[in-house]
Amino acid sequence: MFIDELTPILKQFTQHPVSFMGGFVSGLLRLNLNDDPVKSWLSEQLGSTTNTTEPTQAHNGKASGPQSISIE
User: Fold this and answer.
1) Of 19, 28, 56, 61, which alpha carbon lies 20 to 30 A from 69's?
2) Distance of alpha carbon 52 from its chain centroid, rounded?
3) Spatial separation of the C-alpha atoms in residues 24 and 19, rounded to whole Å
4) pLDDT one-digit tens code per residue, 11-60
């Protein structure tokens, strides 16, 4: 049962070991890929500029922030 839960992780590790370990270490160190030292290093490694625009979030017609609701 425990092996069934680890199978997708092990499959990704065996297919792409370098990128898997890079993502794993950056997750452990809680590195943000948009921060300057990491972002500049990634752009040097890729040899291209990365997209600097923030992704837009879908708003369902309501303002952001806390909303009040009434429960009867």
Assistant:
1) 56
2) 15
3) 8
4) 888 888 887 888 888 889 888 777 777 778 777 877 755 455 555 555 56
Give start and end residues of each alpha helix (H) in the chain: 2-15, 17-28, 36-46
Query: How far lies 66's CA from each of 3, 35, 36, 46, in Å?
Result: 42, 28, 31, 40
Question: Considering the entire predicted model, what is its pTM?
Answer: 0.39
8 class by beta-carbon count within 10 Å (0-12 exposed, 13-18 middle, 19+ buried): exposed
Dihedral Cα 58, 59, 61, 62, nearest 10 deg: 170
Is the distance from CB of 53 to CB of 47 less than 8 angstroms?
no
> Residue 39 CB: number of other CB atoms within 10 A?
15
